Amino acid sequence: MDRARLLLIASPPGERWLLGLAGERLVRVEIERLRTPDRVGELHAARVSAIARGLGGAFVALGDGVEAFLPVEDADPARPEAGPIRPIETCVREGELIIVRIVRAVMGGKGLRVSRRGVQSAVTRSLPTAPGLIAAAPPRAVSLLAEEPEVAEVLCDDVSLLPALRAARPDLGERIRAHRGPAPLLDAAMERDVEALTDPTVALPGGLSLHVTMAPGATVIDVDLAGGSDRTAASRRREDANRLAVAEAARQIILRNLGGVILLDPASLPSRRGAREALARAMAQALAGDPLGARVLGVSRAGLLEIVRPRVRPPLAEIFGMVATVFRPSDTTLALRALRALWRESRALPAARLRLRVGRIIGAAMAAESEAIARTELLTGRPMCWQVDATLAPRAWSVEDARDA
Questions:
Q1: Can you give the pTM of this predicted structure?
Q2: Which fold is adopted by the domain 6-34+139-193?
Q3: What is the arithmetic mean of pLDDT over 56-73?
Q4: Burial call 364-389: b when 16+ CB within 10 Å, e when fewer
Q5: How confident is the model at residue 336 (pLDDT cuts 50, 70, 90)?
């Protein structure tokens, strides 16, 4: 998959959208909720609260009272890569104060995961005597830019980020620049493209579609090929469909930030020798540019292509809402979507006196977004006018010109 050459960093109310493009094609998406950061990268002094041999690790308490899990393979800071793994009780003791870094966010109902590997050198002052935060994580825009070496240009609509971005990539210099002009950096078309990544179905040419099902144990991508033909033509068509499906599945895995075990169910595999190996090689090649280093394990006896990809940050669908058979945006997502609409309309109609009407549920979510509301007022240059309207459906909202009321 192509790597990002242009990075757009847009800061609509309450969020930061990080969009990587290769030409005009979207190749990387990350969304930060500014009120609830994922905490990946934070450095902590933590107290070992319990040894969990049966789970293969230990639980540690951070200074804010949050409990995190330390896997046994990450418990020995001196263990070399691929070195032998010692028993957990020889790596840490209950009650011991240790230095850890958060390496996996809360997701899928599971808590934070931490590691001791590669953190001791990061502690330059005297060792702490109690649990607490040692170093905050850098803004995700900064760490993502460092992960994308092929980025050649950055556009950012939050000038306060520019110094940190330029420090992370001094080679880019003035090619890291502020977005100027009346139109928002995050336009409605790009927003629709990103939100489409929560749709379980991906339509492709020639009657081909992918169906993405996220379950607690694995994500399944089913390849569906409509129509039929004679046996020889159908076989060639299935092979063509699988080649296209593999390329698009790799793209969707990265864009949606899918992790853990991923199974691709192809449109029937031909019986010829080497067909399974060829499919696995094609997927490995398609995922070669994956920043998280997904690994292709091969094709199972059941004909499923098996992939494993590290879980670091939540998948896009989990950030935007609840992962279920049918995607349903969360109340916060709808509230922030309404604020984006108000912001965009205010840019397009500077003379209008815009008012945002929201239903009861969206109003409750909006009340918790004081920082996002303040950001909206900063972006629009005027006090925000919004109200809960009992005549609207609980999860509905509307932007209107108060002059027409």
A1: 0.87
A2: Nucleotidyltransferase; domain 5 (3.30.420)
A3: 96
A4: ebbeebeebbebbeebbeeebebebb
A5: very high
